[in-house]
């Protein structure tokens, strides 16, 4: 019965302990404020390269709200972040108003300011039918959209990361094995080799861009 509920998207009747929740991307970024200093201290490094891999947008994030009541002031958590929420970084002294639809970018901008000598790279495995995300991120730039449609991968630099590599999931499933039958002619071997290289060209381009940034 629970499987049927998930199949048809009726999450309201699923027991809380069996909910699949969402993508804790924002929470993972926030945790880096504690993880990176510890990593740098233990490994005696000044600069770090942080890579974040995700298969979706962040789930809704919650915040703490002060509640003024008769007899005192209290705080409670559990409210979803809305447009009149502010993010305060006590280390940098920066306070920024965050947007409901750009929380992840705001958090990445914040951690980039906190660790200016580090880089933050994102890899997004985009689901089939998720091209709307790329269209919006590119501002409907036809030239770059043509690049996306051709390669099914693109590098974004306006999402808070130093570089954000978006790759269509079905592109990763492409079979690029170099395989020929025993006794194949030279022409057949050449054709199979060329096909193999063509399938791997896109991966090499992404890898080259990534290595260039790290180097």
Tags for this model:
single chain, globular, two-stranded antiparallel sheet
Describe the protein's topology.
Elements: H1 2-7, H2 25-43, E1 49-54, E2 62-69, E3 72-80, E4 85-89, E5 94-98, H3 103-114, E6 119-126, H4 131-137, H5 142-151, E7 153-156, E8 163-168, H6 169-172, H7 186-214
Parallel strand pairs: 1-6, 6-8
Antiparallel strand pairs: 2-3, 4-5, 7-8
Can you give a write-up of this model?
The chain has 215 residues and is an alpha/beta fold. The chain is built from seven helices and eight strands, in the order H-H-E-E-E-E-E-H-E-H-H-E-E-H-H. Strand 7 and strand 8 (163-168) form a beta hairpin. The radius of gyration is 23 Å and the shape is globular. The N and C termini lie far apart (52 Å).
- Determine the fraction of residues in helical runs and give it as a percent range: 40-55%
Rough shape? globular
What's the N-to-C terminus distance?
52 Å
Mean pLDDT: 80
DSSP helical segment count: 7
Strand order of the largest sheet: 1-6-8-7
The main sheet comes to: 4 strands, mixed
Low-pLDDT residue spans: none
Strand content: 15-25%
Condensed summary:
The protein is an alpha/beta fold.
